[in-house]
Amino acid sequence: QVQLVESGGGLVQAGGSLRLSCAPSGRTVGTHAMGWFRQAPGKERDFVAAISRSGDRSFYADSVKGRFTISRDKTKNTALLQMNSLKPEDTAVYYCAAAITLSPYSVVAGSGDEYDYWGQGTQVSVSA
């Protein structure tokens, strides 16, 4: 069983930056592809970004492409989401997730149903 804990959320002005971190407790996530999702109040959960187990392949939602960067720190066994040029519409609860994949190069995007483990979420609020 993998338990994921997100951190790094908070309140920031538009144009600012935040870095989210996702750390597992229990088993390592070094064997899992990782992803970030977000859910704004009254809206469905949306895919944000994903990274392969190998760490060298990633994929982004169009809404964050060029502003957000997903990475993984293998020494710390964490997944990171660097968010720059934040906009009020980025306000949401952000969740990290881990997926078991056969290939180390697989990037898991989509609705999130493919993911096996989820964190509890961290709030990101961007003021205008």
What does this structure look like?
By secondary structure, the chain is an all-beta fold. It contains no helices and eleven strands. The chain has strands at 2-7, 10-13, 18-26, 32-39, 46-51, 58-60, 68-73, 78-83, 92-100, 117-118, 122-127. The strands form two sheets. Strands 2, 4, 5, 6, 9, 10 and 11 form a seven-stranded mixed beta sheet that branches. It has a four-stranded antiparallel beta sheet with strand order 1-3-8-7, with no helix packed on it. A hairpin with a 6-residue loop joins strand 5 and strand 6. The chain is globular. The N and C termini lie far apart (40 Å). The mean pLDDT is 93.
Radius of gyration: 13 Å
Q: Biggest sheet, in brief?
A: 7 strands, mixed
Secondary-structure content class: mainly beta
Number of strands: 11
Shape: globular
Number of helices: 0
SS strand fraction: over 45%
Order of helices and strands: EEEEEEEEEEE
The proportion of residues forming helix, as a percent range, comes to under 10%
- In whole angstroms, the N-to-C terminal distance is 40 Å
Low-confidence stretches: none
Mean pLDDT: 93
Give the secondary structure arrangement, pairings included:
Blueprint: E1 2-7, E2 10-13, E3 18-26, E4 32-39, E5 46-51, E6 58-60, E7 68-73, E8 78-83, E9 92-100, E10 117-118, E11 122-127
Parallel strand pairs: 2-11
Antiparallel strand pairs: 1-3, 3-8, 4-5, 4-9, 5-6, 7-8, 9-10, 9-11
Quick structural overview:
The chain is mostly beta strands and 128 residues long.
Summarize this structure as a short list of keywords or feature phrases.
4-stranded antiparallel sheet; mainly beta; 128 residues; 7-stranded mixed sheet
